[in-house]
Design brief:
- By secondary structure, the chain is mainly alpha-helical.
- It contains 14 helices and three strands.
- It has a three-stranded antiparallel sheet with strand order 1-2-3.
- A hairpin with a 4-residue loop joins β1 and β2.
- α1 packs antiparallel against α2 and α11 packs across α14.
- It is elongated, with a radius of gyration of 23 Å.
Length: 298
């Protein structure tokens, strides 16, 4: 087992990183190793210099990787070297002096509630399993603010329709409870009835494909993208767009920042505060459009 695989096991089992996060680490680190140290031995990795890392970063930029992607990949390399330094495999981190790529300032993309009403005002056939699955996926993401990975890993026993709450396993395997309303509860009952009659019972995960398999990231993305594209409303039509829309809708209707933080599973308020900028941006736009003196010059 090479040092990258050792670190990935450490990240998953000791640090409690999610399976999807560890998978992303693996992709980043193997790409780094392919460029600078294909054998992935501590001896070779200890000879890597800051110039080597800069050369790798330059190659990422030339291949079209965004600033956000490059920043994430460099952070993955730093995490690997921190592990190696603590384990006594190397004495220095060659990525330490690499300046993080600057990220463009941007607000999350989100969809207005009236647009989501139109998206969800859809007939679902009584025997159309794929349509039922896609509809409940979109409704659950919008109604709960779950991450895509959380939805994929949602266990059937974690969906308590009597209590109207989901038990979700989030980042770093942190568990949280998310309440939901009567609309989602009704569709959960319909989906479960159709799933059990058409696919069978005894499945661990709540959402399964027609073939009886768990969902996977690209399938969830395509379900959401296709559903939202019918109404438009955002350039980036993804599962995370629904998470942003959930948070923005709550704050826009007066929910407290701390409550939204807990529902989203954020570790700090700083990550949640971006949505206050979204709602303020909406308020400012509405003011400019509606107030008779908003456009007047001095």
């Amino acid at each position: 087992m090479n040092v990258i695989e050792q670190y990935l096991q450490y990240a998953r089992h000791e640090l409690g990183r999610s399976a999807l996060t560890v998978k992303a680490y693996g992709v980043d680190l193997r790409q780094f190793a392919d460029h600078v140290a294909p054998d992935c031995t501590p001896e070779t990795l200890s000879t890597i210099t800051t110039a080597d890392v800069r050369d790798w970063v330059a190659s990422l930029s030339m291949s079209g990787d965004s600033a956000r992607t490059i920043r994430r990949k460099v952070q993955s390399v730093r995490a690997l070297y921190r592990y190696m330094m603590r384990s006594g495999m190397v004495s220095a981190d060659p990525s330490r002096d690499i300046e993080p790529a600057k990220l463009p300032s941007r607000l999350p993309r989100w969809i207005r509630s009236e647009t989501m009403d139109a998206v969800l005002d859809t007939e679902v056939g009584a025997d159309d399993y794929d349509a039922m699955l896609a509809y409940v996926v979109v409704l659950m993401l919008y109604s709960t603010g779950m991450r895509r990975g959380e939805l994929i890993g949602l266990q059937d026993v974690a969906v308590d329709n009597k209590r109207r709450e989901l038990r979700v396993l989030g980042k770093r395997d942190k568990e949280r409870l998310i309440p939901y309303g009567n609309e989602l509860a009704g569709w959960i009952d319909r989906y479960r009835t159709m799933r059990d009659s058409m696919i069978g019972t005894g499945h661990d995960t709540f959402f399964i494909t027609r073939a009886g398999k768990p969902l996977y990231p690209s399938l969830v993305y395509n379900m959401v993208h296709s559903s939202l594209a019918r109404e438009g409303g955002a350039e980036q039509l993804s599962p995370h767009t629904l998470r942003h829309s959930f948070a923005s809708a709550l704050l826009g209707d007066g929910a407290g920042l701390g409550s939204v933080k807990e529902l989203l599973g954020h570790s700090s308020l700083a990550a949640t505060q971006i949505y206050t900028h979204v709602t303020m941006s909406e308020l400012q736009q509405n003011y400019k459009l509606a107030h008779p003196r908003a456009q007047r010059k001095e």
